[in-house]
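To close the section, here is one more complete example, presented without commentary so you can practise reading it yourself. The ligand is heme C.
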Amino acid sequence: MALVLPVALAAALPAGEGGGARFVRGNANGDLGLDVSDGVSIFNFLFAGGDAPPCRDAADADDDGRIIITDGIFVLNFLFLGGERPPPPSPGAPCPGADPTPDLLDCAGGEDGGPEPPEPPEPPGLVFYPAQANAPGVGARSRRPLPLDSGEYRIEAGHSFVLLVRAQSSPVTRAGFTLAAPGAPLEGNPAALRVTADGPLGDPAQGGAAPGTNLAPWFFREVDPWSDPIYLVEEAGLRVAGGGPLAPGPGLYRFTAQVIDDACAPSPERSFALRVVPSRAPEVFAWIEGGPEPAGAPAPHDPASGNARVEAESSGFLLVVEGFAQEEATVPRAAVAAPPGPVPAALRVTAVPPFSGPEGPRGDLGALFARDPAAPARFFLRAEPTGLFPALGDTALALELDLGAALAEDVGRATFTLEVRVSFPRDIRPIFNQSCGGCHEEPDPFEGLELVAPGEPALHVWRNVVNVYAAEPEIDSSAPFVVRPLFPEESYLWHKLAGTHLDPAVGGEGVRMPLDAPDGLPGEMLHRVRSWIAEGAGVD
Ligand code: HEC
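Output:
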């Protein structure tokens, strides 16, 4: 098997900007790659009257300024015996380079008039613009450039767009550009595409890109099969999702792109300005307060969780949602007229798990909210233990408010966790008493785990489970404790109840608990136990 390194078009190319002709050291015969034929061609030239190397610098594999027998040996050593890599411009680099060391050799053919280096390839053409379209490859025909206004493209913050690079290669080489393949580092050319923005795209600490970062690794490539076959048109695109890590905040951005084709010819640099204007989507806030009417004064939050927390026995509370208009856009709005002032048109609220109401569980709550007459952007819902009330434990609320515009991006979204505090003596101990008795009870509790102890205070049972090592999990288990406060996933008791104890990541054994109920505890009880752990597994 011959080892062929993808050294792009490794033929000697005439002088580039850096001065000196470009070549790949060791590629003595100037063909497409570095392989055994390069070593052989050096021996042939030296001893068998073979052709002179098209570039003598390339044949000087060890860069000692001479072409002698050691150069052929050097190439074969590198290829097959793990020997040293030829000095720069080394094989494996994305493009041929100029000789960095002065010597008497040059990149012309030998004295006997070896083959002439080829003509310089024509640089590829480049078009670069932002469009509203699906990611490359999907719906490619329906893309629309963003609106252009006095030299700038415009888009609202939070809207998605695609950065498109369209390169047309030289009619001589018909070569395209080859993006680096993350899975196969020796394939593709990491220098083939360079796209930068002068402002940050998203928060660099959260997976966004700092100004000047090359965005090429995020690009997808596609070849346009409908183009004139004399030329080869290649496109690459990057979808910047409105809510994704690369989403740019309001401001003016200058994007710049350059492509280097497979013959290592660079395109001219292209750039454009994109103004990201503030979004029309309302910013959504939610909180709980006491009644009877909303006052805009949140009840104090539990400092440990940061979430709104209520007591199950509390007399009721108001859940309030308000959408504030974001900073007015600095440009005149297009055809879609927003209503004057921050008056959201529709509110959707979903609760998981559902609230329990007189007509059964209720997960879709939006229609139950009333609008506050004193503040038109504010909606509220009254929750009472005797009527509609969240389940014990954590309820995840997803909130959506919109201004009635058609675009999905104009919807303001927020999530909110509502905690109805779980009490160990009141809400958890009865589950143990009801479902774990006999087995996890003196005189001989299974696995030494005593969950039921009539006559003992709650603290006695609590001490048996919280921050105690479980007996069954493997030594490197991700859930070594019976109960680990705040972390249900690290609590073996949770996995034994949820039936996830046999997952390889958990590393447990045995059957799902309770042993005599193969389908596990009812969902509401499971949720209660999980919430109790997630809230900190207190004992009151
Ligand atoms: C019918 C008997 C029985 C009942 C009821 C039962 N268990 Fe178990 N439990 C066992 C047995 C037997 C084992 C050990 C074998 C196994 O894990 O399959 C065990 C093991 C456990 C373990 C692992 C302990 C450790 O340290 O590794 C936990 C946690 C547990 N049970 C929790 C519970 C909970 C919580 C309940 C009640 C909701 C319950 N079990 C009800 C019989 C029972």
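Once you have examined the tokens, check your reading against these statements. The pocket of heme C is lined by residues 432, 435-436, 439-440, 446-447, 449, 451, 470-472, 482, 492-493, 496-497, 510-511, 513-516 (CB under 6 Å). The two ends are 72 Å apart (CA to CA).
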